[in-house]
Write a structure and sequence with these properties.
four-stranded antiparallel beta sheet, 2 domains, Elongation Factor Tu (Ef-tu), domain 3, about 230 residues, about 10% helix, binds zinc ion, mainly beta, globular, Threonyl-tRNA Synthetase, Chain A, domain 2
């Protein structure tokens, strides 16, 4: 059985900043193909945009089906598992501890990209993992502030909203590389850190920068590397 899961309403974690905090959800299982389960909706982020795919469990009765990664293939979001079985519904449970670390890292990345942009450095490539991340800047010798910008002390709230592509304000998102947005995307998910940053992003983020906790940041060459203590 093949079903399509579009970029729209079925990606529950795109519905607002709070939706990244949903840890489990009841789902219908639409099929299994290419090593992964296709569901009617998901709280699991699929690998891409500089953020890893989520992990967790699909629970059906006494059966715990481990999900080791989530990837998009064509229009389908595949919840990858080596355990193939016929079920029509279940509970999708996120590996929350890992995801929360990724949310901290991703929010930290947005904030660092924003503060270095003010000093004239662009972020060409960004990648975050649970506890570690990096930004490839447009400078071969990037200098950052010694205090690491104290982003965790900023106490800035985040919000997420949807805007149509033609209504995107390029000035507001100057530090964001909008050329990377796939042409097929008409509705753009924007993540805003109050008074600091706005960027088109389909990843998962915190509600407030104060949740980041203690972190480190360093600059070997043109990279900015950062991580959690
Ligand atoms: Zn993001």
């Amino acid at each position: 059985m093949k079903h399509l899961l579009s970029d729209g309403g079925q990606l529950i974690y795109l519905q607002g900043i709070e939706s990244s905090y949903i840890k489990e959800i009841d789902v219908k299982v639409l099929g299994y193909e290419s090593g992964g389960y296709i569901l009617d909706k998901t709280i699991m982020h699929y690998q891409g945009g500089g953020q890893p795919g989520d992990r967790g469990m699909l629970v059906s009765g006494d059966l715990n089906i481990p999900i080791y990664n989530v990837k998009k293939k064509g229009k389908n979001v595949l919840h990858l598992s080596t355990l193939e079985t016929q079920i029509d519904k279940g509970k999708l449970v996120l590996d929350w501890e890992r995801r929360y670390k990724i949310m901290k890292m991703h929010t930290l990345q947005h904030a660092i990209s924003a503060v270095i942009f003010r000093d004239g450095y662009g972020s060409l490539i960004t990648e975050v993992f649970p506890g570690y991340g990096f930004i490839e800047s447009n400078s071969s010798d990037i200098k950052i502030r010694k205090d690491g910008y104290k982003i965790n002390e900023m106490n800035k709230s985040l919000k997420r909203y949807s805007v149509s592509r033609e209504n995107l304000d390029p000035k507001l998102m100057a530090r964001c590389n909008l050329d990377k947005l796939p042409k097929s995307v008409n509705e753009v998910s924007v993540v805003e850190i109050e008074g600091l940053d706005s960027c088109a992003c389909a990843g998962t983020h915190l509600k407030n920068t104060s949740e980041i906790g203690n972190y480190w940041v360093r600059t070997p060459g043109k990279r900015v590397e950062f991580g959690l203590f």
